[in-house]
Amino acid sequence: MTEALRTLEARYYTDPQIFEIERSGLLARTWQFGCHTSLLTTPGDYTTFEIAGESLFAIRGRDDQIRVFYNVCQHRAHQLVSGTGSTRVVVCPYHAWTYELTGQLRAGPNIDAVARLDKSDIFLTEVRAENFLGFLFVNLDPDARPMEDWFPSTHAQLEEWVPHWARLQPLAWVDIPENCNWKVSIENYSECYHCALNHPTFATGVVKPSTYDIQPQGKCLRHTTECQNLEAMRYDIHSGHAHYDAYSSWFLWPMFSFQVYPGNVLNTYHWREVDADHVVVWRGWYAIDGQEDATVRQLAIQDRETTVEEDIHLVESVQRGLKSRGYRPGPLVVDPASGVNSEHSLMHLQQWMREALDG
C-alpha cells in the first residue's frame, strides 16, 4: 500500500437505496443461517424464517432429507406455513392445494378438470441449503458454490474445536436490537482494536489482547488468541476435549459467527438486517441435548450484561456519527504485522462490501 486506506463513505451505511441493493443482491447471493436442525427431527417437521426479505421454510422429508422452499403456493401465491410445526403434507390455507414433503404437488380441489394440467410438473421452488454442523444455511443463488469453497477449512476446524457438536441444541437465544446499519455492527465485531478500552471483562477475563489476531480464510475471518486468567474462570473449563483452554471465532461473511469459549462452549452471533438504520443480533448459546446448563446460562447472562451492552452503545454512536455532516471517511489503521491494534480485518471486510455493491 502506498497510501492509507480509507473507510467506506457514510452513505454505504445510511442510504436506504444501498440497503435495498444489498438485500436484493449481496444478501440473496451469500450463505445465510436459516435455523438449527434440532427443530427438524422427524419427517414433516418444519420451521419458517426470512432471508433477504424472502419468507422461506425448511422441512424434513420422509427420506430424512431437509429441504428449503420459498414459502409461497404455486397456485395463487398465498404463504403456505407459519412458525414452527409438523405436518404430513403441506396444505395451502387459501385453496387447499396440497404438496408432498418433497415439494411436488399432490392434489388440489377440482384440478382434474383442468385440461393438460400435469401435477408432476408443479413443484414448490426449492432453495440451496447445506447442513453445517447442525446449522442449516441457505443461499438464494441456485448457482452458488458450496460453503467449503467460501469458507475453506472452517468446517474441519469447528469439528476439532466442538467435537460434541452433534449433541448440541440451542439453550438460549438472546435477541439484541441495535439502532445501526448491519455493516456497522459487523465491523465492530470484526476488530479488537477497541477491546481493551471498551470490553474490560472480555479483555481481562478471557482473551489475551496482545495475542489477538484476525485473518481471512476465504470469506471467513478467523479470530485467534491466547487466553489469560484461566485459573480464575468462574466455571470448570476441563471438558475433556482438545482446545478446552482456548478461545477462537469464525465469522462467516456476511452475517454469522461461531465462537468457542474455554471449555469448548459453543455460542453464535447471527445478524438479521431490518433496514438501513436497524439490525437485530441473535446470540445463540448451546448445551448437550438442549438441557439446562448453569455454566452456559451464566455465560449468556454475563455476556449480555457486559460485552453485548458495551457494543450496543458503541455501534449506535457510530451510526449517529455517520449521519453527521462533519464526518469524512477516516484512515484504517492497517499494521503490516497485523495484531490486535490493527484494522487489517476491516480492510478485507470492506473490500468484500465494495465488491458486493460494485460487482
Structure description:
- This protein has 359 residues and is of the alpha+beta class.
- The chain is built from nine helices and 17 strands.
- It has helices at residues 11-14, 16-24, 147-150, 154-161, 182-189, 195-198, 200-205, 294-322, 344-358, and strands at 32-36, 45-51, 54-60, 66-70, 84-86, 90-91, 98-99, 105-107, 126-132, 135-139, 168-178, 213-217, 220-225, 247-252, 256-261, 265-275, 278-288.
- A seven-stranded antiparallel β-sheet has the order 1-10-9-4-3-2-5, with no helix packed on it. Strands 11-17-16-15-14-13-12 form a seven-stranded antiparallel β-sheet, sandwiched between helices. It has a three-stranded antiparallel β-sheet with strand order 6-7-8, with no helix packed on it.
- Strand 16 and strand 17 (278-288) form a beta hairpin.
- The longest helix is centred in the C-terminal third of the chain and has 29 residues, at 294-322.
- The chain is globular, with a radius of gyration of 22 Å.
